[in-house]
Specification:
flavoprotein; 2 domains; alpha/beta; RNA-binding; eight-stranded parallel beta barrel; oxidoreductase; flavin adenine dinucleotide binding; TIM Barrel; binds flavin mononucleotide; 342 residues; FMN binding; 12% strand
Length: 342
């Protein structure tokens, strides 16, 4: 499943450039290879991100698993964690060889484990080191290197410090920044709380873009609907959706359709397009539950949506569960929808 084919570089580069407008955030344990295959069907034009992988794991670990991708998942970025320029450069080189379209450096994760390893959000306080990392990564391959950051850490409240951080990584070669538009509080909050409690300040990302019109800026944090995402595009180049894309994945489809001018497809048709992938992976020995856990939110907010989730999540754990379970969930949902409309 590794090694994306390389379509003609012009086409691939154009597709990559266009995907700046909509992306799905890197999310540990969520945006694995199966999830991305589903998201790709929903949003053919979106840029997808892997879960964060530490640079040293890329170098020394099981690459077949850690860097798994399929050709359809392009444009696809690998997100790296780490703060050692040489290791990040080596991992970037490996990622480029593997077929990733972008390598993104995580400067936003606040977990204790990450802080202990001196990477993630605490790097916002080490702009010179981050610039050194980005310079080494940029020199290691031709794939664009990008940075995902916060506005600051703890009680940082000086826009100029944030802007200097961004200017430093751009001078070092970063092609784009993703701004998760809130601070990370390094003490006292869990990673989950750190996605909700520090207040959002979108205006810092807007100002960054206004003052640096040539710099591609993608905004992230708390964007949950098609309308909210489209409104962001009046201010910045792209929107990145995290939790909303996972819990209510049809929003990705609605956004992608709005951006491309394409038709809205019914949820069931989108899901059925995943069948060849599911059957191929099951033939490789992957259990159905590992794939369908990512589709449970497809009917979020729809009549029958809870039944869909229930039939799939209960049934997928039973031995022998296969695609027929997905068909059962779809037909139960359809009947529930018809009943509620009657
Ligand atoms: C389960 C989960 C795992 C996450 N893992 C990562 C990660 O590996 N790397 C990263 O940069 N951000 C990670 N994030 C943060 C998201 O990328 C995003 O910045 C955050 O959820 C805010 O966007 P949202 O409000 O659209 O969800 C994670 C978020 C969630 C919910």
């Amino acid at each position: 499943m590794t090694g994306a084919s390389n379509p003609s570089s012009g086409t691939r580069a154009d597709t990559y450039a266009a995907s700046l407008r909509l992306s799905v955030a890197p999310m540990m344990d969520w945006t694995d290879v199966h999830c991305r295959q589903f998201h790709r069907l929903l949003a053919p034009g979106a840029r997808l991100y892997t879960e964060m992988v530490h640079a040293k794991a890329v170098i020394h670990g099981d690459r077949t698993r850690l860097l798994a991708l399929t050709p359809e998942q392009a444009p696809l970025a690998l997100q790296l964690g780490g703060s050692e320029p040489a290791a990040l450069a080596q991992a970037t080189h490996i990622a480029a060889d593997h077929g990733f379209d972008e390598v993104n450096l995580n400067c936003g994760c606040p977990s204790d484990r990450v802080q202990a390893g001196r990477f993630g959000a605490c790097l916002m306080r080490e702009p010179a080191l981050v610039a050194e990392c980005v310079a080494a990564m940029s020199a290691a391959s031709d794939v664009p290197v990008t940075v995902k950051c916060r506005l600051g850490v703890d009680d940082d409240a000086d826009y100029d410090v944030f802007a200097d951080f961004v200017d430093g990584v751009v001078a070092a070669g970063a092609a784009m920044v993703v701004v998760h538009a809130r601070n990370a509080w390094l003490q006292g909050l869990s990673p989950k709380e750190n996605r909700d409690i520090p207040p959002l300040r979108y205006d810092w990302a807007y100002r960054l873009k206004r003052e640096r019109p040539g710099l591609p800026v993608v905004i992230n944090g708390g964007i949950a609907t098609r309308e909210a995402a489209l409104a962001q595009l009046d201010h910045v180049d792209g929107v990145m959706l995290g939790r909303a894309a996972y819990h209510d994945p049809y929003v990705l489809h609605a956004l992608d359709a709005a951006l491309s001018g394409g038709p809205l497809q019914p949820r069931a048709d989108l899901l059925r397009a995943l069948r060849p992938y599911v059957e191929a992976r099951m033939a490789d020995g992957v259990a159905l539950k590992h794939i369908v856990r990512h589709v449970l939110g497809l009917f979020h907010g729809q009549p029958g949506g809870r039944l869909f989730r229930q039939v799939l999540s209960e049934g997928a754990h039973r031995p022998g569960a296969d695609w027929q379970l997905v068909e059962q969930a779809l037909s139960a949902t359809e009947h529930a929808g018809a009943r509620s409309a009657a």
